[in-house]
Every structure is written in structure tokens, then in C-alpha cells.
């Protein structure tokens, strides 16, 4: 009887966690400017995902401390969370930042070493941060990225992404983050021709300074690109967290971007 109960529990758990849920969020200047209350709110948003990719971690020690504190909040109620923070990116000093990954060890495991892109670090100002995760015997590598701003022409960086799948042939690469560029831009055509697809189309993700006629979102900047031969998307969405706040000023204490997420199955 006990054996049947254990098998039943394992089977039901397998159904619940049959897919991996990934969240990507540009959390504006996450560092010393984020209060404990800010971090507690962020934790309430991200705790339902298996892996969270964070952009715009400030390069100083306060950036690392914020990720440590955020993970501690997630773990405060018997959680199983770990984190990784990149070294500062190697581009222009006024634009350098860190990336972070936070993941739930109950569902996924970290595999090998994480690394910043080396080959194209001169061409890409904030070079991507890679980390491989293992889920039910299959692995996938997230490439966490924050492009230069729109007025600086992010397509001049993104054009190098077409080389990355062949550079990392043994990795199931998933590109995610803030591209400061819509997926309809021609710079993504080579990547799409190689079998990559964007999770979102015509989805605005950055926030306006003020809402106008109930429209609070500005531009189609954040996205997730996956190899359609290796990944099957089950669900996806965005989180309109700004609706929890009385003003855009209060909203921007958290971020000027909304979180995006995808639930996928590895083929």
C-alpha cells in the first residue's frame, strides 16, 4: 500500500512539473536602491518559476548583495533556491552591469560553470551570460542578455547572435532578456532561418513614464528565442505588475520593464 502511495505521489509530481517555467526580467538597477520591501515584492512575483534570468544587476557589491538577499527571501519559507551572479560585463564602464540566475533546485539543477561570452565581448557591450540547467536528464543553456539602448542601435550587437548556435553546437541555447529591439527587426532573420523562433510577437514590455488612455506599456524590447527543433513552447505570458501600484512612480521603484515568462518542454 505504501509503495503504491509513493508511486502515486511521484506520478502526480511528474505531471505537475512536466514542463520548465522560465522567467526573464530586467529589474532596473537592482542593487542598493532596492529596499527590503521591494525585494519581498519581487520575490512574490518570481517564486512560481523554475529559473529566473535577471538583467541590470548593478556591478558594485550592492548588486550581488541584492541577489543574495532576494534568494534568502525565497528560501525563508523552506524554499530550495540558489543563485549565480556574473562578473561585471567588459564594455563601456558607464554601461557595465552584472547578470543573475536564480533557480529552484527542487525542479532543476545547475550544470557545469556559467560564463560570459568571450569571442564577441568586444563587439557586444554587455556580453551575454550563459548558464546550463538540467531537467529530467535533458539540459538547456540560457543566454541572458541586455542590449545597448535603442538610440545606440542594438542591432549592431544582435547581428552576432546568428553565430552563437554554431559556436556552441553541444548546447541547447535559449536567448532571453532585454534586446531593446522588436523581434520583427531584420537583424533576427538569420537566427530565425536557422530554426529559432520568438516566444512573443507584438508584445510591449517596457513601461511608459505615465499611462496614457490606460496604455502603460511602451516598446517591444524583451523576448525569448528558442530552437524550435529542440524546444516546444507550452504556455507563455507577461506579468502586468504595475497594476499593483498606485502610480508609475511607485511602479518604477521596482522596474521599468515587466517580467516575461515561458513554459516549455524539451524535445
Number of helices: 7
Instruction: Tell me the distance between the termini.
Output: 35 Å
Helix and strand pattern: HEHEHEEEEEHHEHEEEEEHE
Side-by-side strand order of the widest sheet: 3-4-2-1-14-13
Overall helicity: 10-25%
Assign the structural class, choosing from mainly alpha, mainly beta, alpha/beta, alpha+beta, or little secondary structure.
alpha+beta
Largest sheet: 6 strands, mixed
Query: pLDDT under 50 segments (min length 5)?
Result: 1-17
From the alpha carbons, calculate the radius of gyration and give it in angstroms.
Answer: 18 Å
The proportion of strand residues reads: 25-35%
Average per-residue pLDDT, rounded, comes to: 93
Number of strands: 14
- Which overall shape is indicated by the principal axes computed on the Cα atoms? globular
Main features:
alpha+beta, 7 helices, globular, 14 strands, six-stranded mixed β-sheet
Question: Helices and strands in order, then pairings?
Answer:
Elements: H1 2-16, E1 20-30, H2 36-46, E2 51-57, H3 61-75, E3 81-85, E4 98-104, E5 109-116, E6 129-135, E7 138-146, H4 155-158, H5 164-167, E8 173-178, H6 189-193, E9 196-198, E10 207-212, E11 215-217, E12 222-227, E13 231-238, H7 248-251, E14 260-266
Parallel strand pairs: 1-2, 7-8
Antiparallel strand pairs: 1-14, 2-4, 3-4, 5-6, 6-7, 8-12, 9-12, 10-11, 13-14
Amino acid at each position: 500500500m505504501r509503495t503504491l502511495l509513493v508511486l502515486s505521489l511521484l506520478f502526480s509530481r511528474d505531471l505537475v512539473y512536466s514542463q520548465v517555467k522560465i522567467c526573464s526580467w530586467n529589474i532596473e538597477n537592482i542593487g542598493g536602491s532596492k529596499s527590503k520591501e521591494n525585494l519581498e515584492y519581487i520575490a512574490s512575483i518570481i517564486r512560481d518559476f523554475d529559473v529566473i534570468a535577471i538583467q541590470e544587476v548593478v556591478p558594485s557589491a550592492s548588486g550581488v548583495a541584492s541577489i543574495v538577499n532576494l534568494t534568502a527571501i525565497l528560501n525563508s519559507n523552506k524554499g530550495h533556491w540558489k543563485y549565480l551572479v556574473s562578473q561585471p560585463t567588459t564594455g563601456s564602464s558607464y554601461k557595465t552591469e552584472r547578470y543573475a540566475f536564480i533557480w529552484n533546485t527542487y525542479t532543476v539543477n545547475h550544470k557545469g560553470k556559467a560564463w560570459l561570452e568571450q569571442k564577441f565581448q568586444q563587439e557586444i557591450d554587455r556580453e551575454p551570460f550563459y548558464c546550463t540547467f538540467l531537467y529530467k536528464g535533458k539540459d538547456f543553456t540560457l543566454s541572458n542578455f541586455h542590449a545597448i539602448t535603442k538610440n545606440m542601435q542594438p542591432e549592431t550587437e544582435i547581428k552576432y547572435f546568428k553565430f552563437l548556435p554554431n559556436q556552441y553546437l553541444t548546447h541547447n541555447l535559449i536567448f532571453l532578456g532585454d534586446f531593446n529591439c522588436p523581434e520583427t527587426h531584420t537583424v533576427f532573420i538569420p537566427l530565425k532561418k536557422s530554426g529559432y523562433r520568438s516566444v512573443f510577437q507584438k508584445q510591449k514590455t517596457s513601461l511608459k513614464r505615465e499611462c496614457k488612455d490606460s496604455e502603460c506599456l511602451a516598446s517591444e524590447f524583451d523576448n525569448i528565442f528558442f530552437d524550435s527543433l529542440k524546444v516546444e513552447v507550452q504556455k507563455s505570458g507577461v506579468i502586468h505588475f504595475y497594476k499593483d501600484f498606485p502610480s508609475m512612480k511607485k511602479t518604477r521603484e521596482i522596474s521599468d520593464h515587466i517580467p516575461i515568462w515561458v513554459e516549455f518542454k524539451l524535445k
